[in-house]
Amino acid sequence: MVASLKRAAPSRTAYTEIRFSGLLDRPLILHGELEYLGPAELGKRVNTPYREQTTIANGEATVRRGERAPRTFSLSQAPELEGFLRGFAALLGGDAPALARDFELAVSGAAANWQLTLKPRDSRLARRISAIEVDGANRTPRCFRTRDVDGDVSILLVDTLAATQLPTRPSQPQIDALCRGIKTR
Amino acid sequence: MKRTRALTLLLLGTWLLTLIAIGAFAIHGLRISTDLRSFMPPPRTADQKLLMDQIGEGPGSRLLLVAIEGSAEADLAELSRALAAKLRGDAHFEQVINGAFDPASLGDQWLPYRYLLSPTLDSHTFDATYLREQLEQRVEDLGSPAATLLKPLLPRDPTLETLALAERWSPPKPPALRDGVWFSSEGVALLLAETRGAGFDPTTQGAAIDALENAFHALPNANAAKLTISGPGYFTVLINAKTRAEADRIGAVSTIGFVLLLLLAYRSVASLLLAVLSVASGALAGVAALALAFGSAHGITLAFGFTLLGVAQEYPIRLLSHRRAGEDALTSIRALWPLLATAIASAAIAYLAFFFSGVAGLQQLAVFTIAGLVVAGLTTRYLLPRVLPTRFRDAADTPGLASAAAFIDRLPRPRWLPWLLTALALVVLWRAPGPMWQNDLAALTPVPQDLLLRDAKLRGELGAPDVRYLLVLHGADADAVLRLSEVLQPELDTLVKQGALDAAELPSRYLPSLATQRARQAKLPDRATLEVALSDASSDQPFREGLFTPFLGDVEVARKLPLLTPTEFARSPLGARLASMLVKQGDGWLGLATLSGVHDAAALSAFTESPHGQASLLDLKAASESLVVAYRERILRALGVALGLLALTVVIALRSLRRAWHVLAPMSLATLLVLVVERASGISLSLFHLVALTLAAGLGLHYALFFERPVADAAEGRRTLHATTVCVLSALLVFGMQAWSSLPVLRAIGLTVALGVGFHFCLSILMARERKDGSEG
Q1: Does A62 touch chain B if contact means CB atoms closer than 8 Å?
Q2: Residue range A50-60: average pLDDT?
Q3: Which of B66, B84, B206, B310 has the fewest CB atoms nearer than 10 Å to its CB?
Q4: Distance (Å, rounded) from C-alpha B634 to C-alpha B347?
Q5: Residues of B in contact with A21 (CB under 8 A)
Q6: ipTM of the complex
Q7: Could you tell me the CATH number of the domain that includes residue A23?
Q8: What residues in B contact A52, CB-CB < 8 Å?
């Protein structure tokens, strides 16, 4: 199944990210574009509500924000980030063995509405992230949900869901329903 | 004078017991110091004074660079963390750093101080505008991949001062961080360990390195990985061990040779052991005298002393060779004593000059050598003859000796030869290649090139400070130093940009001056004002209501904090770092800024000379070389006086200027020839060469004195030749071995003495032993 998710690099897709955090009283909603440039290269552009370009290549992440000088840091500085991105890249690259090396995999649901759960094997990554969940239909993932250990959740809506009109203060169940293809409106 | 066996044994027993007692006293009473300061002359210039205080104790020279490699990255990171944790609890180490500074390690009571320590408030105020800008950035941070790292900090520190401090307190050019610890570009985990002991001290450095290695090997999974240590302290230990091992090896081989030689010459084990007893008495007496007079002695002083004491082996050898068949040993020594006493007295008087040199190291050398020579002489005179076996072989009958003596008698002795040699010597000395003097003591004990390269590589990767240069800030008190440090910081930053150096670490990086802290504290708004500004700033932000209450609390605490003095700061986890950069000297204070990657020392020194006046660039190498020069000048002056005293003693003892000339001329010319040969082969002279020359001259004095001595018959002449040959061969054996050593310091001593002994012997034969044909001028 993972192999069927493989994307040809480079591919570009719009996304909407909803982040629920204990620090925030309303979720953060970002719109932008994800770029999958190859096995170790990822790009993430935020267009609204602010502009930010993150490029991950050669083990380094570079963040450009507005007029400020770009900040570059080594991915190995934060192994949890590296593990997370490795998982993401393996998913988009359709590399099932690599994915299984870093995560415990579990699949549920039907072909038209499946859910893939990735639990990190690396203890350092597990200290920050409890699971990554992917929702999809057939060969297309629609949602990437990252659950932090502290209860914060970030959900990336891609493909057909990326352009979904969201309420200003969506709730987690609303988004989850969206990901499972249940029409709530 | 019939001796009873019982009396002899009683005397011998008493002698041995006394030696053991003196030895025990000496070992307990004498502390071997490795402090270079006790070896060096008193400092005169300000730089020398500072060097004396900082020598080996400067922040740079106490750093050990540690690398762990050979395992998977995650394992190496784990090893690095475990090793650092273990060493932080070890008394040998001041501090251990293996990654970015973690502000969390400061502990709760220190965290509010971040507002006084971080430079943010110098250029900003905590008003609504600034806070809104910060909060907007924090929202963006939460949407970025770094969110998981920053989340725990936000409620207490929305302006991220702790991160600003972490960046400020990490070394100026830190290595890459992986998994929170330092790694080189080649995937080697790196640590910096600052020892408590001085860098030049092989004992404390050895203990620290042992502790480090033991701590490492006790870690689980340590066996798969490889630990590498470098740095000044490591080199000290390495060189010390290497020198000692080589000296021991050479010592063992030459001792065997020496024993064989004496057995061959005297065919008596008892004579040999008893002869050694005299020399041992001298050595022990020297050590005991040091223990009594000083309580401690520098290792180098002792090494020099034992070298100079090599003369003492002559005394028993003379006695053994000059015993006449059928003659009692006491009678022999009585006949020899006037000359032997002259030699001992002239050497002892000459070394008095060292005593008045004013250098502690040289005074110790004088006390050791004089006590040693006098005791070795006296035991040879009064004890040795009474315990020597009565049966022996007259040395005059040694096979081949007669023909050797006849051969030497037939040698032509052109009177013009010495003068020609002198003239040639002076020309060669004048035209000799290379610098006359070697001022770099380190050149005598060189670190292998590959280790130096490895050290440079590690140092570069770690951004560890240069050990050669220090920027020194002068102030009336600690706060004045910190103020000066703040003024210099931007100017040094400019120099870094211009490429004069890679980085500088000033004391104000860790602790701002009181004035700066006060100014920052004054800019902190009171709680009510801050609350209004914050609610204004976060009105259109998604942050949860009341999220930043811990921030309001910390600012309120910071407003009322007493300002941090260096004394207060010393109690913090970073205290050690500042303490090594801020030291009291006399009635002022010094700030020591470490510099990394100095490319343009001239630009730096111009920078310190310009308007400041309170800052100076200390070149530790230049300062230590100037000390060596000062030390050498003192030795040379002492040697000059010693030579004068020696000549005077010889003249008085021989009661004849002409006879004294016959003794002193070959000695002086031989010394000159040694200098010529060494200089002509491009060797620059060090302190060790000078000490070795002195020893050789002492031996040469004996050869000349004995050859010059009028003898009653041909047999006595042969005995003199026998004694001198044994002495020359034994000296050549011991020092000739050293001349082949791979270590320049041993080679310097060995080559000089071996050459000297050869020249002294030949010239004494040619110039002193001239009386036989009765035609000298």
Answers
A1: no
A2: 82
A3: B206
A4: 18
A5: 142, 147, 151
A6: 0.89
A7: 2.50.20.10
A8: 140, 143-144
